[in-house]
């Protein structure tokens, strides 16, 4: 029954997440609970999840983050940032995509696509697509306000900033691969019609950096936990509104960005985690004739390719690993997280990949083939290291 419940819960998540990831996670969690724990305990876990102060604060913070992206776009700060990055064309393509990626904005790949299209005139379209997708997501891998990273460290009980230090080597390897396979093929300089403005560069940079800096300081020196994240993102949103060139209609932005979707995803993830922990699914999965680390790395990569998500595989794989091993070290966390993340980047059901291909009129196969080599290098490297330490 446990296996049936676990596999059925994954099927429910995969089906429902096509429409709404939060609904999929909640549906999968309840399905797992119905198969594996008493109804009274299932109800207790639901109440605990929606009333836990730390989860409520994290949910609130994740709802604010997309509003920052919406106000920066509406206030002209994103355009101003890109217009004042006076660098070689190849690096403008990468940084333009990366800047959009630092804020989890719905359709964010479409915001950077017009910039890459203009700056990349004469460059093969499938190459521009690959650059947009690779660099939009590469910097999120080590961004302190990335919801998937925050929640993954919360699940494993690890410190966010120490976890980032262990992920950094993988980030730099991916950065080098991106340069060798993508940016090196782009030549020429970008021309600008407007004069350079320090103000135009520093204002959007201040908005983007204010949230993670405050989050870090308040967590490190005042031990405010998730309240620090709420304060940081609220400060970033306030700065974006106060420094905007245009009048900001927050209600209109909220309707477009749908921040509640981001918030509800957090609740769904923790609900699945809490029910999974109460069930015996971890022990059953641990009985598979595979070393736990290999199961986590390979399973995480495959699940992220199949779902086009990071949060979903992380919310399943980390609890599975914790149920089969004594604890999760920072090194092990980095291996698993990197495997999950690069499966997500190449997934053919990843929304950013799909909308980028649609914008540039490039077949998905063309984009996937461009991304295949660096993605396989990242995954195989993680898997080989995992085999070595098994």
Helix content: over 70%
How would a textbook summarize the main sheet?
none
Task: Give a count of the beta strands, DSSP E runs of length 2 or more.
Answer: 0
Determine the number of helices (DSSP H or I, runs of at least 4 residues). Answer: 20
Q: Beta-sheet strand percentage?
A: under 5%
Question: Which segments are poorly predicted (pLDDT under 50) over 5 or more consecutive residues?
Answer: none
Explained architecture:
The chain contains 20 helices and no strands. It has 390 residues and is mostly helical. Helix 4 runs antiparallel to helix 14 and helix 14 runs parallel beside helix 17. It is globular, with a radius of gyration of 21 Å. The model has no long low-confidence stretch (mean pLDDT 85).
List keywords for this structure.
single chain; 390 residues; mainly alpha; 20 helices; 77% helix; globular
């Amino acid at each position: 029954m446990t296996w049936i419940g676990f596999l059925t819960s994954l099927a429910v998540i995969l089906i429902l997440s096509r429409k709404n990831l939060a609904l999929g996670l909640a549906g999968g969690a309840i399905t797992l609970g119905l198969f594996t724990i008493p109804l009274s305990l299932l109800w207790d876990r639901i109440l605990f999840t929606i009333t836990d102060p730390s989860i409520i604060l994290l949910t609130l913070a994740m709802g604010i983050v997309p509003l920052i992206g919406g106000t920066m776009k509406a206030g002209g700060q994103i355009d101003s940032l890109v217009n004042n990055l006076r660098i070689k064309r190849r690096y403008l393509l990468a940084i333009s995509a990366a800047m959009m990626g630092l804020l989890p904005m719905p359709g964010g790949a479409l915001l950077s696509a017009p910039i890459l299209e203009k700056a990349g005139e004469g460059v093969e379209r499938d190459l521009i697509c690959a650059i947009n997708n690779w660099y939009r997501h590469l910097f999120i891998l080590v961004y302190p306000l990335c919801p998937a990273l925050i929640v993954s460290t919360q699940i494993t009980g690890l410190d966010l900033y120490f976890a980032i230090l262990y992920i950094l080597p993988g980030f730099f390897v991916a950065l080098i691969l991106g340069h060798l396979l993508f940016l090196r093929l782009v030549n020429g300089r970008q021309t600008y019609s407007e004069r350079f403005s320090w103000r135009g560069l520093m204002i959007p940079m201040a908005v983007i950096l204010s949230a993670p800096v405050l989050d870090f300081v308040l967590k490190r020196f005042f031990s405010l936990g998730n309240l620090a994240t709420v304060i940081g993102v609220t400060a970033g949103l306030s700065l974006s509104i106060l420094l905007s060139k245009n009048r900001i209609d927050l209600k209109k932005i909220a309707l477009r960005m749908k921040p509640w979707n981001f918030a509800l995803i957090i609740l769904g993830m923790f609900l699945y985690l809490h029910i999974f922990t109460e069930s015996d699914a971890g022990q059953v999965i641990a009985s598979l004739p595979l070393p736990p680390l290999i199961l986590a790395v390979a399973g995480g990569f495959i699940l992220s390719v199949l779902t086009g998500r990071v949060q979903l595989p992380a919310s399943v794989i980390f609890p599975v690993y914790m149920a089969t091993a004594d604890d999760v070290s920072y090194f092990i966390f980095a291996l698993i997280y990197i495997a999950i993340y690069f499966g997500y980047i190449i997934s053919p059901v990843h929304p950013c990949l799909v909308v980028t291909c649609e914008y540039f009129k490039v077949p998905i196969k063309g984009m996937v083939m461009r991304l295949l080599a660096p993605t396989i290098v990242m995954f195989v490297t993680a898997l080989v290291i995992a085999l070595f330490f098994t």
